[in-house]
């Protein structure tokens, strides 16, 4: 079983795995929610970053160890360890950040001190409005930056464009830094389309398409890399080549990646 998608540690497993995974104990898990703007999802307690989760993301806690909680992210099923301090009881988000980035403010006015930065995809619970601001339990967010959950974008390429210039970050999932699969996931989730976290998992999305017939929104894959087609000439991707999210001519990228030892295109998919 893929450990990235298996909610189990050596001690405890989710009850859905009973009969499939051996464990000393099975649990339905504890439903929690991310209460900080951004947190690393780790491969082990205090270990390396695998992915990231955003404010308002749901998380089912399966196990705890030395101040860390192991569990599964609701948005994509990815499993890993979070610091316990980044989790809290679920408050039930009502809106999501539909701008590339936003802030939480102490008061509902533009001159107020900001207390946190939010990335596209973060979720908040709106409890009221004050002028041009939405009130949340953490403070005030510009209403123009929010949409009700369920009010999604329709074009993932348009969403991906909002990340242009964002720095490349291995395992990143936010405007502050993201990798190739993080960009694809953010763009598809913002359109209400389910999407796994890593590029090899994204190979299962949609239907295969021929490289000669690529259309806007199609995904093009190399070993360990994925990009999104913009049109007949261009693609967009978060790439370690230049360490940024950029537009690049597709034919040029194919030739460059091959020349740098990244191999040929391995697949093309239409989500």
Automatic annotation (TrEMBL):
<dbReference type="InterPro" id="IPR051794">
    <property type="entry name" value="PG_Endopeptidase_C40"/>
</dbReference>
<dbReference type="InterPro" id="IPR041382">
    <property type="entry name" value="SH3_16"/>
</dbReference>
<keyword id="KW-0645">Protease</keyword>
<comment type="similarity">
    <text>Belongs to the peptidase C40 family.</text>
</comment>
<dbReference type="Pfam" id="PF00877">
    <property type="entry name" value="NLPC_P60"/>
</dbReference>
<dbReference type="InterPro" id="IPR038765">
    <property type="entry name" value="Papain-like_cys_pep_sf"/>
</dbReference>
<protein>
    <submittedName>
        <fullName>C40 family peptidase</fullName>
    </submittedName>
</protein>
<dbReference type="GO" id="GO:0008234">
    <property type="term" value="F:cysteine-type peptidase activity"/>
</dbReference>
<dbReference type="InterPro" id="IPR000064">
    <property type="entry name" value="NLP_P60_dom"/>
</dbReference>
<keyword id="KW-0788">Thiol protease</keyword>
<dbReference type="Pfam" id="PF18348">
    <property type="entry name" value="SH3_16"/>
</dbReference>
<dbReference type="GO" id="GO:0006508">
    <property type="term" value="P:proteolysis"/>
</dbReference>
<keyword id="KW-0378">Hydrolase</keyword>
<feature type="domain" description="NlpC/P60">
    <location>
        <begin position="150"/>
        <end position="271"/>
    </location>
</feature>
């Amino acid at each position: 079983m893929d450990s990235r998608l298996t909610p189990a540690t050596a001690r405890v497993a989710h009850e859905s795995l009973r009969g499939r995974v051996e464990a000393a104990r099975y649990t339905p898990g504890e439903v929690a929610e991310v209460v900080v703007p951004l947190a690393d999802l780790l491969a082990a307690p205090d270990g390396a970053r695998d992915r990231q989760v955003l404010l308002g993301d749901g998380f089912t806690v399966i196990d705890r160890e030395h101040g860390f909680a192991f569990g599964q992210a609701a948005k994509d099923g990815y499993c890993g360890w979070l610091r316990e301090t980044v989790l809290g009881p679920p408050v039930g988000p009502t809106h999501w950040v539909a701008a590339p980035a936003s802030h939480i403010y102490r008061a509902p006015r533009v001159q107020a001190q900001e207390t946190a930065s939010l990335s596209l995809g973060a979720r908040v619970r709106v409890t009221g409005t004050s002028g041009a601001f939405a009130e949340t339990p953490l403070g005030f967010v510009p209403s123009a930056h929010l949409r009700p959950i369920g009010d999604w974008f329709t074009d993932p390429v348009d969403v991906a464009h909002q990340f242009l210039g964002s720095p490349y970050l291995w395992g990143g999932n936010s405007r502050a830094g993201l990798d190739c699969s993080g960009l694809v996931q953010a763009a598809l989730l913002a359109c209400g389309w389910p999407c796994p976290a890593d590029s090899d998992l994204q190979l299962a999305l949609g239907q295969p398409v021929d490289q000669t017939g690529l259309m806007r929104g199609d995904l093009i894959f190399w070993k360990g890399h994925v990009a999104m087609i913009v049109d007949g000439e261009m693609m967009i991707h978060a790439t370690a080549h230049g360490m940024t999210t950029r537009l690049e001519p597709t034919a040029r990228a194919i030739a460059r990646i091959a020349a740098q030892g990244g191999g040929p295109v391995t697949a093309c998919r239409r989500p």
